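Complex 299.
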Amino acid sequence: MKRSADCKQLLLDRVEGLLQIPTIPAVLAPLLRYLEQPVEKLDVQKVTDFIAQDKSLAAQCLQMANSPLFGRWQQVDSLRGAVVSLGFRHVSDIAMSCGMLKMLPGKKRGFDPIVFWEHSLGCALLCRHLARNINLDDPGKAYLAGLLHDLGIIVNLWLLPDEFGEAFEAARSEGMPLHEAEQRVLGFTHCESGGLLAERWGFAPGLVEVVTHHHLPQRSSENTTLVSLVHIADLLCRTGGLNHGYVEARQVNLFEDAGFALLARSSSALKKFDWARLTFELESYMDEVHRLVRMIYRA
Ligand SMILES: [Fe+2]
Ligand SMILES: [Fe+2]
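Predicted structure with fe (ii) ion bound:
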């Protein structure tokens, strides 16, 4: 118990010094600030010029623009074409994901950054898909929330690599959810550490809640629908092959899940949702997510 209290204090101290991890703000801040403006004020060329300054961001935009996951079957070979094809919203999401990718340390103690990225992108796509199908007002916001929900894992990897490695090993060998192993070994989960960073980076309140409560959506207050949606998508990914690199032993009944009940309360369309079809679609998603992530990661 004392050790986990020490870990938590260590985390808090280290989060205070988090500006030592400058990659995300450096890549993102100016572009994201620019993209926050009303869409009619945005200039394609300006966004293109900004992206061109960062080689891996440019490569990611091109690869995403050419992926069927983003609805393109036609070849896009210029950066400007990629910006037009993806739209400002996706460019902003990709900038965010690019920054996060740069923060991921290499493979360590069984934790594979590519697998982490597949989980995040898979969850983002699933969130967007679910949001569209249950008529949530902003599928783009759901996509971003899915992409960033496990931000705390990166925080833990950076700030407490040995302790996190131990938690990851325990989770993998016992087939338990990662957050439960973190709680046991570290005394806190990636939800708490991610929440601290999300707040520090000034994420929108909905995103902070997603990062903080995606494993316990009943604790969210203002953005329960979004948090529950991400919770469900995360669960589907973890049980459907876009997991953290190991299979969790516990059987999950989605329809008895607290997040599912919360989501059903706010969306009547959920009752009519075709889950059998989703399971089928999920399989085809996976192949493309694997392919795309491996391509991006090598860029
Ligand atoms: Fe998580
Ligand atoms: Fe997750």
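The chain has 15 helices and no strands.
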